[in-house]
Amino acid sequence: MARSTQDSLREQSRQMDCLYNETDRLYNGFARSCGLSECAYWVMYEIEVSSGSASLRGMAEAFSLSKQTLSSAVKSLEAKGLIELFFEEGSRKNKVASFTEAGRAFSRERIVPAIEAESRAFGSLEPEERERLVALVSKYASAIRRELDALKEGEK
């Protein structure tokens, strides 16, 4: 690969990393302004968009959260009285998190406005741009996952 092409790829990759970090910083700052960790914010978000209850296993998968990180966030939300846990129907292992009345009120006050703001921001893009952005970010995430997994495999 030509040197200028390699330099261009590195700079574009760096720009993507900076944009992802900026987005993470924005969500982290917003979560903190709500008195939540970023992970706890995403738990509340997922419960809200799932009509008041969501599977912990599903959350871990959807948001790429470790069990330990998710467990810590769930415990903090339980301690604040915002959520409660139940076993999934027919399971003695898998749990579902649901809003308490206080959690529902908190979500209406803090989480729903953030979801609406996010929707407005995403809606500021043209429909074709939104579709293309989602498709390209998904393609990039898959590609970087493959590349980083290959690096990990090479270390073994």
From TrEMBL:
<keyword id="KW-0805">Transcription regulation</keyword>
<dbReference type="InterPro" id="IPR036390">
    <property type="entry name" value="WH_DNA-bd_sf"/>
</dbReference>
<keyword id="KW-0238">DNA-binding</keyword>
<keyword id="KW-0804">Transcription</keyword>
<dbReference type="Pfam" id="PF12802">
    <property type="entry name" value="MarR_2"/>
</dbReference>
<feature type="domain" description="HTH marR-type">
    <location>
        <begin position="1"/>
        <end position="142"/>
    </location>
</feature>
<dbReference type="InterPro" id="IPR000835">
    <property type="entry name" value="HTH_MarR-typ"/>
</dbReference>
<dbReference type="InterPro" id="IPR036388">
    <property type="entry name" value="WH-like_DNA-bd_sf"/>
</dbReference>
<dbReference type="InterPro" id="IPR023187">
    <property type="entry name" value="Tscrpt_reg_MarR-type_CS"/>
</dbReference>
<protein>
    <submittedName>
        <fullName>MarR family transcriptional regulator</fullName>
    </submittedName>
</protein>
